[in-house]
Amino acid sequence: MDIKEIIQRTNAFLMEEFEADPAKISPEANLKSTLELDSLDYIDLVVVIENNFGFKVNPEDFQSIVTFQDFYDYVAHRVKQKALV
Description:
Blueprint: H1 3-18, H2 31-35, H3 39-53, H4 68-84
Helix pairs in contact: 1-3, 1-4
């Protein structure tokens, strides 16, 4: 799975699950404020990621995720790790 496919899949479920405005989703946008995430939303986001990409998310990993690009890179890295196992 390449980064373009990851971005497309990620944006699709963000728009569906979190009713995100596609016009506001950009690599440099702040993930938390754009999606208006609270602590419960983060739990939902973890579940959606695990279901869509098939890997377990460590909650502490979100501490370093600020932008959508950070999020895409995280998912891409974890998908790549999963493929190597």
